[in-house]
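Now read the record:
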Amino acid sequence: MIGINLLPPEICEKRRAEKALFYMIIGVVTLVIILTGIYGYYSWLVGLEERQLVSIQVETQKLSEVVKEYEIYEKKKGELQTRKEIVDKAMAGEVPWHKILNGISMVIPSDVWLISFSGSEDGLTLSGFAIDYAFDKPDFGHKPVAKWMVRLGEVKGIVDIWLTSSSKSEVEGQPAIQFGTTTKLSVDEIAPATAPPAKTTGE
């Protein structure tokens, strides 16, 4: 069967042009939709990257604050160390009298008491009394004074102990032994006070 188009050529050409225009519009719309989708996708990627960047910036800011705090801590630590070194240098060679006195108070026998104490960087000068026991025979024995000197030697930093005097005397009518001692000091050896030795029967 043969079809015959009886429409004028102008109308056929117009229809072909309209159809081409329709397809072109469809193509343009499709392209716009595709480009819009691509733009939206990349906009989403950019937004995601921006959010990640903001998160990184926040973390960086926190780290910067931590670093600043650490720098302040290190600075203060350095200042304290410098002050400590200055104090250590200033106190180098000084006698820690509180340790000396505490050490002596810990070791002094119960039957000995001091009446004078003087000290310098060169050493100590001490004098006092000891009980002169009636059972201490012979009468010229000075055992409490000897015990005092042994105890004194247990205090760290006290060296070269000498007995300068020891003689029979009285205190408030009671027999006693008056004595004097001198010592040298070794600052480098001074440590916390030594605990008194255990007492034995008869002391």
Remarks:
- Residues 9-92 form one domain.
- The CA atoms of residues 35 and 41 lie 10 Å apart.
- The first strand starts at residue 112 and ends at 120.
- Residues 191-203 have pLDDT under 50 and may be disordered.
